[in-house]
Amino acid sequence: MTGLVLAALGLSGIVADTNGEWTCGCEVPRSAKAAVLVPHSVGRVQHPDWAALKPGETYIRCNPGWGMTYRMAAVLNESGDSYAIVQKGAREYVSFLRVRQGTKPGTVLLESGYVPDADDLKRGAALHPFETRVIPFRGGWFAAAQAYREVVRDEPWLKAARARDFGKLRDVAFWFWNRLDSQTVIPPVERFMKDAGVPVALDWYWWHRIPYDTSYPNYWPPREPVADFAAAVKRLNAAGIFCQTYMNGQCWDVDDPSWTDGGEQGVRRRRDGTFPSTAWNRFNNHRLADMCGEAPAFQRRIRALVGKMRELGFDGQYLDCIGNGGYGSCWATNHHHAAGGGSHMVRDFRAYVGDVMRENPGLALCTEDVNESYLDLFTSYIVSSPSYERFEAGKRVDYEQVPVFTAVYHGAAVFFGNFATLGGIPAWDPQWPASERWTEEKDWPRMFPDQFPVEVARGVTWGLQPTTHNFRMENVTDPSCADGYRFMVDTARFYHAHRDWLFDGEMLDPGRLDCARAEVKFLNRGTYTKKGEYSVSTHELPTVFHSVWRSRKGEVAAVVVNWSGEIRKYRLVSSDITGEGALPP
């Protein structure tokens, strides 16, 4: 156990609380308007109402998964020192970070915690198996990212990730997150590739006969005849389109007959012996349960099917949920791991993913959302946070997602994704009740003209390969989609032409960009939104997004994107590059 770095900032010793969790903390100064940087997905800057918090009251707790993809949180003061609390070497452990109102006026308490397993508790020593540091720095989110980048720079797993050859994925200029059978999914991708003249990739959902979020992990046979499915893969291979299919790498359908063949034995259990499950599919209410990292019956099914997909000729395989869900505690008494927290969950999921890799050499594995714990195993990660406003259920957005993760880890894996939908219509599974299908669609592209370009442009400036969701052939021919389609083509060509920076390069301090701001409306409508129901969230945003990059040759470039429908002037000043001009709509 490495314990703590007890620096001059006065980091307290570890205390065991009534929940059996071990925590330590440090009280640091904060200004009246101090922001908090939390490790939610790529990163998020939030603005607490400090006056409303009582002394010692928790503002936020960050747990592994979506809520803590990297092990650092920070308080950002407008002037003077800001402070980051960092866990070094914690990526496999059930650790957490917490930000609380300080016990004294004008302070904030930064805390590091650890959830021990039964073996740790038997030892009786309240120590973390990783270091906790509190680091002072000057600046905002990027300065915090730089401080964290120094902490992880020499990690062997990071060096291994950066040393990989990404093959065809390096040249991908646009991803298509499409669903349903090959005749629905493939033709629009082929058309775009022809129009843009650049390599593309397909992340293929709902290829299986079973309805979405039902009967997992029993995906085979495909939705169309096996011969047609196999021919579709050869068609993609011949066109040079990188392709992977969807499988959930963690969930088993509790209400499927196969559950009795090993589900109960491998499920992740709470302390009281029960297990959580969620009915995502509201049409049949089948419950999906999270499996433990030690679930041999489940993993055998997935491994066998991944091998089948590789034999068919797919370039990659998407394993959903591991990246943002393969964490936490399991209290099962019939598993080999020590009950509780510790490191068993990530360790066992890593072993499972490692088995898939060894059995399928050359197959590029992908999972959901960025994370440190599996960064050296998965080749690519789909990221939903470029579309974060659409999850706010009609609220006004008062926080900002910021690309801390790519500022630290760009080049260690392929990052892509968003929920940007050119036509504004989510995918529909024909196996769902016909009475639930929307029969009257509005002119969504004209009602929400800025949403699509905002979500696509944001990802590019973060260093993600551009992506669109549920792209259909009618999106190519519908006049209301013409501007969005042109933007897709332009973006793909731009990204492909500047891969030396946006794929191979290093993100630099973005500096300051002055431009007009505008209120943007976002359609909040998801896959399972009830017929006729939707909400609208709003967010005031700069009309020009930007980032600054350095290529491996040492060349510095700024990326500036006008996502709006008007000419926009901008002026950029950073420590590495300055510039100004006017961008067309």
- The share of residues in extended strands comes to 25-35%
Return residue spans where pLDDT drops below 50 for at least 5 consecutive residues.
1-8
* Number of β-strand runs: 30
**Main pleated-sheet profile:** 8 strands, parallel
Helix content: 10-25%
Radius of gyration: 24 Å
Structural class by SSE content: alpha+beta
Number of helices: 15
Shape: globular
As laid out across the biggest beta sheet, the strand order is 21-19-18-17-13-12-11-22
What do the pLDDT scores average to?
95
N→C terminal distance: 56 Å
Describe the overall structure.
With 585 residues, this protein is an alpha+beta fold. Helices cover 24% and strands 26% of the residues. It has 15 helices and 30 strands. The protein has an 8-stranded parallel β-sheet with strand order 21-19-18-17-13-12-11-22. A hairpin with a 5-residue loop joins β6 (72-76) and β7. The radius of gyration is 24 Å and the shape is globular. The relative contact order is 0.11.
Summary keywords:
single chain, 585 residues, alpha+beta, eight-stranded parallel β-sheet, six-stranded antiparallel β-sheet, globular
In short:
The protein has 585 residues and is of the alpha+beta class. The protein is built from 15 helices and 30 strands. The strands form 7 sheets. It has an 8-stranded parallel beta sheet.
Walk me through the topology.
Layout: E1 15-16, E2 22-29, E3 35-38, E4 44-46, E5 58-62, E6 72-76, E7 82-88, E8 95-101, E9 107-114, H1 118-123, E10 131-137, H2 141-152, H3 156-162, E11 174-179, H4 182-196, E12 200-205, H5 226-239, E13 242-248, E14 251-253, H6 263-266, E15 277-278, E16 288-290, H7 296-312, E17 316-320, H8 322-325, H9 344-359, E18 364-368, E19 380-382, E20 400-401, H10 404-409, E21 414-416, H11 444-447, H12 451-462, E22 467-469, H13 473-477, H14 482-497, H15 499-502, E23 506-508, E24 512-515, E25 517-524, E26 535-542, E27 544-550, E28 556-562, E29 568-573, E30 578-583
Parallel strand pairs: 11-12, 11-22, 12-13, 13-17, 17-18, 18-19, 19-21
Antiparallel strand pairs: 1-2, 2-9, 3-4, 3-6, 4-20, 5-8, 6-7, 7-10, 8-9, 14-16, 15-16, 23-27, 24-29, 25-26, 27-28, 29-30
Helix pairs in contact: 7-9, 12-14
